[in-house]
Every structure is written in structure tokens, then in C-alpha cells.
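Q: How would the C-alpha cells look for this protein?
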Amino acid sequence: MRDVILFCVKTGALSYLCLLFSPQTLFAQSHEGDKEIMFSYGVMSGTDASMATIAHGIYEDASYTPLTNSGTIFVTYRQYVRDNVAIGLTIGTQFMSYQYTNTARKFLYQNCTLKTNVTTIAFEYKKIHFHTENTNFQLYSIMGLGMRIFSETATPERDFIALFPVFVNFYYSPLGISIGKNYGFFLELGYGYKGMLNGGLYYRFNSEHN
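A: Here is the predicted structure in C-alpha cell form.
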């Protein structure tokens, strides 16, 4: 059964990647030359899941107990290089705090509160798969690759050198929707640095036509 599920997942992913990078997209309206500025907020990011995994993977006696989490806040700029393809840069931040315990390693934090600031910088590829001109509804997908930078402080203060202050990070959203022409809102389902659910507002313009 497990092999069947894995086969279905791999087949579906491969089929979707073929669609994502296909030279033609059905029903897409031309956006070449347009630019987008987007402000978004996401929840349940890959950073949330990896914090505890990293701690337990390196130190079997270490644990992170979540205390606060701001969610992910992003500013994104994209330009359409083809009718239905846009590339751009996204910059985001996330603030978290954890109760950290480690009974086995005397030289690391022990029974303290960690405050973590995570900065993400990534390049993104967007492809529109469906567009309706009358309602300006878009159906699209996103792939992003970049890095996240951790900065940590502890209370009470401890001497500490972060083992992995910089991580390679990614974002994949197989389903994104947006509604609006020059101004509008969008919502994306995915996994990675922007979270499993990411949404916000955008402004789309073309300086050559303004």
C-alpha cells in the first residue's frame, strides 16, 4: 500500500511539473511587461516544523516548546517575462520564541527562553495556468528557492554559537488564486517558507503604459 501511495504521489508531482514548465498555458491572458508588488501573511511555515526536527535530530535530549509565533510576513516583487510567466524576489521575516531544554549538553542553552528572528530571501517563479478577463481571476502555481537566516537570543543569557545560522529554503504552491486587475487579493496553498496558507494584497502595473 505504501508503495502504491508513493507511486501516485511521484506520478502526480511529475505530471504537475510538466504542466508547470510547459511552453504553453491554456486560457492565459498576456501579462508580459507587467509588474507585481505583493504583501502577504502566512501560517504554518516550514520553519515552524523544522525547528523541533533540527533540535531532536542533533541532540536527542533537546526539546523546543513553542511559546509565541508571529507567522510569516512577506514583501514580493515580480515581473512578467512572458505572457504567463513571472519571476521575482521575495523578502520576509518571522519572529518566534521557544522554551528550550537540553539536559545532556552542558555547553549549550539549558532551560532558557529562545527568541528567534528568521529572515528569508528567495527567488520565485510564477506560472499562470488559467485566466479570465472579465473577472480577472487567475489560477497559478509558484516555486521558490532561497535562504533563511536565523538570529537567536536567550533569556537568561547564554554563550552560544548557532550551528546552522543559514539554511537553504524553498516554497512550492501547486494552487494559487488571485482576483483583481490592478489591485486585488490572492491566496496560496503550499509548503515552505511562506507557510501552508499564504494570502494578501497585490498591486499590478505596467510602467510602459502608465
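The longest helix spans residues 2-20.

The beta strands are 35-43, 62-69, 72-82, 85-102, 112-132, 137-155, 166-180, 183-192, 197-205.

Upvote if useful.
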